[in-house]
Amino acid sequence: MLFWSYHMNFSDDDDLPLRTDTQLVTAGRDTAAQKGFVNPPVVRGSTVLYPTAADLHAHRGEFSYGRHGTPTTRALQQALRALEGDACAGVALAPSGVAAISTALLAVLKSGDHLLVCDNAYRPTRLFCDGLLKRYGVTTSYFDPLIGAGIEALFQPNTAAVVVEAPGSQSFEMTDIPAIAAVAHARGALVIDDNTWATPLYHRSLDQGVDISIQAATKYIGGHSDIMFGTISANARAWPQVEDAVRALGVCAGPDDVFLALRGLRTLAVRLKHHQEAGLEMARWLSQRPEVARVLHPALETDPGHAIWKRDFTGASGLFSIVLKPAPQKAVDALLDTVKLFGMGYSWGGFESLAIPFDCTSYRSATKWNPGGPALRLHIGLESVDDLKADLERGFSAFNAATS
Ligand SMILES: *Cc1c(COP(=O)(O)O)cnc(C)c1O
Question: What pLDDT band is residue 17 in, cutting at 50, 70 and 90?
Answer without folding.
Answer: confident
